[in-house]
Amino acid sequence: SEMTKTVEISGEGGPLGIHVVPFFSSLSGRMLGLFIRDIEENSRSRRDGLFHENECIVKINHVDLTDKTFAQAQDIFRQAMKFQSVILEVLPPYNREQYEKSAIAPLFFLDNEEGVPKTKIPPPVHPKPALKSINLSGTSNLEAGVQATLQQAKSPNLPRVGRKSSSPSLSPLMGFGNKKNAKKIKIDLKKGPEGLGFTVVTRDSSVHGPGPIFVKNILPKGAAVKDGRLQSGDRILEVNGRDITGRTQEELVATLRSTKQGETVCLIVARQEEAFLPREL
Fold this sequence. Notes:
By secondary structure, the protein is α+β, with helices and mostly antiparallel strands. It has helices at 44-48, 70-80, 96-104, 147-154, 223-227, 249-257, and strands spanning 5-10, 18-24, 31-39, 56-60, 63-64, 85-91, 109-111, 117-119, 131-135, 140-141, 182-190, 198-203, 213-218, 235-239, 242-243, 264-272. It has 6 helices and 16 strands. Mean pLDDT is 75; it is low at 108-120 and 137-177. Residues 152-175 are annotated as: Disordered. One of its GO terms (molecular function) is phosphatidylinositol binding.
């Protein structure tokens, strides 16, 4: 609480006009909250000076967003905005490094042979894979604005012991490259005037071929949000009965964009079982 400031807003004043992305710790890769990437001009947030770019929302009505998925954090925010008073804990940019250190300390507090506690922080890792983001309602782009918040999702700086292929990652997007421990869900989306309404993300192609493709964001408008079943972090397995394993992100996007308005796209997605999601005790 010493590192954050409290912002109290009314849920009845209309849209806030802020654009948020996941706030991943650069030290542990943990999801710590919502990063305010952008504030719309002439919005309530800009007019009333509620928020500033690069601030991070870490608690909403006393609910800690640490280890929540992006979809869960968005839902907590939406539910809170139904109340007259909403209390947010906001982390200023100048306290971010200190806050990340405070969040990593409990993770790596280990005992040595003498029984004296000491903190072990893993050395930084600088991997080559990059995140590519394509918005299905517009042109392809590398979202420079979210590099700061998503660079941790490329490969969280975890100790080697935590980087087994069978362990779920702390990042919801890059969480599981295999199909184990996941349930398959069939989702039919009818393309309307606002498109299919979701973005996809993958790692750059490697020597093993194209990596798995995940749903990155559900957009505020479009078929996905109306249907309500597709979620951020879902891995896309099939499109219209065609296995997309080994297909590039560009091929998938071309297939989805070629769907005409009024036609239905049949998706098979894999979703992590509930056992792997953070639980509220």
